[in-house]
Amino acid sequence: MKKILRFFWKYRGFRVRDWYKHQRLIVTFVLFSPILLGLGSYVYFHDGEVLAYFQENVLVRVPLALGILIILLLVALKIEIELERHVVFFTRLRSLYFLRRKMFYSKFYNTVKRENKAEKIKFERAYLRQNKHTVEVSFELRGTKSEQKFLQIGPQLETTFSGDLMDRQILDGYIIYTIAFQKYLGRISVDKVEMTAQGLRLMETVYWDFRKEPHLLISGGTGGGKSVLLFILILALAKIGNLYICDPKRADLANLERYEVFNGQVYFEVSDIVKCVIHAWKIMNQRYDYMRQSPQNKMGLDYSDYGMKPTFVIIDEVGAMTSELEGMRGSRLAAEYLNALQQIAQKGRQAGVFLILSLQKAGVDAVPSNIRDQLMKRITVGVLSSTGYSIAFGEEASQKEFKTIKEINGQAVRGRGYTGNFGEVIEEFYSPYVSFDRGFDFFEEYAKLPKLEIADYDQIIQAEIKNRSKIPEVSDDQTFSREQLAKALGTSPTVVQRATQLLADSGIYFDKGIKGRYSYDDQDKDFFASVLAYKRSEGVTLSKAIEQFIQSVEDD
């Protein structure tokens, strides 16, 4: 029967009517009416006694009676407020009152003239559905005069209902907003952060499904709880996959290197972090080779279908890493790091290699846009500037009313922020609760974890990662100027200069000396020699030789 009814008519909730402006007065009267009825009945049947009672001392007993009536009226009002807070039926009536008021002052109505009567207000089609935790408001679009305003009213509804906008969708000619109340009630403790069928649980209703929403960007204001959130993620993810932890500021995460579970997989030297990211990129490529060569290879499968575990590359304070590399702009070190990071961001999902990047301040230059746009899950903790929210969430930030909440029920709030998938609705977020006051210690929990085992499909790469060191200092006898390199190769400096420019256009850069001139080492010399040998053997131009040589190396 329900399916037949839905075919002809879809229930959207209670339609907003003008009479809801009297809703609170009506409810108060209904609650107070039993008292009035009881008093009226008593006076009617005992009028003589009541009259005699008041005549004995009019100046005292009449004010006393009025005072009692006022107290009873206040009690009825208090009961109404409690009912609105705890009983869905009355909460819905209050929400209809607020929605009608919002639509009235926004002029979302038409007036109907009536003969010898006042004009009648008829609101545009709007419906409200509500349960204990959410309210759903639907506005008809279909060419109404307020259509454009309805499409942008989401942030205003958050304020109207003192809630958090969770969803916005257009369906069957209506735009439907879903707003949640008391989102903090969905906060979970750190021991409840675990993998589920919906993804990694971060709140009762918030999950990070990294298979569908690859890569995570965390932005945090000072003292907002970003480091604690990273520790929570590390504790949970170490149980399901492999981690590479990078901390260019040598701060909290660098301390994890002393724990066996993370032995050899914590990096804080800039050169080691670059190596780590490059080798994670190699892991990704190796996994693609593994999947391609597998007998069960089919279109649409990902790493989990081949029995592989996820790998997470965590870079705390990625802005600090960017700053470190800023002085090396144009060098191969910086270029290789950014190239590897971009490749993982673009292709890591299917191979199960994911990035978790954190920022103390979401600056425009901290993460290049071509990488940032690939980080699908976004979380902020603490208070950010409007620019910070815009960088963290993109254009959706303009559709969100960001609030600052310092206390809830008299207690300070920590770890509060916002989350959303890139390009989707942003919702309120509360980082999992950590009971430090009861002795919880992350380092004790890490010590209980078994050492991360490197699977066979990552084993070749891991041997390279363990062999880490700083980029060696290049001595004078290992360095060539442009002229010296040309002489060693038996060619002209012009050819070397032209080849350097062509290679830079292909994303291969060379170091510069203090005076800004290119300097080349023995490895560079061998590389140039191979390119020139390829040019002679194939009988092509220098630009063509470089293009084909690079392509052949990539294919190999």
CATH class of the largest domain: Alpha Beta
The CATH architecture of the largest domain can be named as: 3-Layer(aba) Sandwich
Low-pLDDT parts are 460-477
Q: What summary fits the major beta sheet?
A: 8 strands, mixed
Beta-strand share of residues: 15-25%
**How many H/I helices?**
19
> What is the β-strand count?
20
> Could you please say which CATH topology of the largest domain applies here?
Rossmann fold
The CATH superfamily of the largest domain turns out to be: P-loop containing nucleotide triphosphate hydrolases
Rounded to an integer in angstroms, the radius of gyration calculated over CA atoms is 34 Å
Distance between the termini: 64 Å
Name the structural class: alpha/beta
The geometry reads as: elongated
- Domain module count: 3
Helix content: 40-55%
Q: Summarize model confidence as the mean pLDDT.
A: 82
